[in-house]
Amino acid sequence: SECRWDGQLLLNCSFTRISTIPEDTSQTAVTADLSYNNIKTFVCSDGRNEEWMLKHLNLSNNLISELTLTTCTNLPNLETLNLSGNAIHTLTLEMPTPAHGSKKYSIVDRLLPALKVLSVERNNLNTVPRGLGLLQSLQTVHMSSNAIQQIDPKDFQNCSQLKDIDLRNNRISKIHPDAFRDLKKLQVVVDLRENALTIPLPQILVSLNFFQLEVYLSKNAR
């Protein structure tokens, strides 16, 4: 492929018009830039489940429409995942509920344990991806410029490390009063600009850390 490899840490495949992940990609790469290509599908594990050293993966500005992260048990060191500028309408984090007494899906406990930043801006999401709470180290989530219509009480459930949420430029008209209740470390920004909110949000914000929190609400319907 036309990818550039520095021989040790950085794989740069940006603007190379590839449609699939190069098969000869080194598992020792720490940063992989696959942005601005024609990639339609991305599968984390090839079945061998050999661990990669990747910390930063950029898949922005491709053609991905559906993505399942529940197979990503081979990326234990991944800290940032950039999926912005795709056509993602389905982002799967949760695994099916196992049969009674079965431990078939316990592998989900190893789902991207080091991931701190998830970017899914400029996609086609109409809901917050279910299962964000499974990403135990998640601190920042960028979901601006999608088609999200409401925030439900379980959307950010168990996101105990989350500090920064960007929901700007969606279609949000309703936020459940308990939507941010579990976010005890939320301290940077809740960006709700350019949505369809029509009412003030005192019930939603009452349990948050006002001393460090910035809440942006401009350009709403109210």
Automatic annotation (TrEMBL):
Keywords noted in UniProt: Leucine-rich repeat, Repeat
Species assigned in the record: Nesospiza acunhae
The protein's name: LRC66 protein
Lineage of the organism: Eukaryota, Metazoa, Chordata, Craniata, Vertebrata
SMART domains assigned to the protein according to its UniProt record, in alphabetical order: LRR_TYP
Gene of this entry: Lrrc66
PANTHER family: ANTIGEN BSP, PUTATIVE-RELATED, INSULIN LIKE GROWTH FACTOR BINDING PROTEIN ACID LABILE SUBUNIT
Top-level taxonomic group: Eukaryota
Gene3D superfamilies (UniProt xref): Ribonuclease Inhibitor
InterPro entries registered for this protein in UniProt: Leu-rich_rpt, Leu-rich_rpt_4, Leu-rich_rpt_typical-subtyp, LRR_dom_sf, LRR_TM_domain-containing
Signal peptide as annotated in the record: none
One annotated Gene Ontology cellular component of this protein: plasma membrane
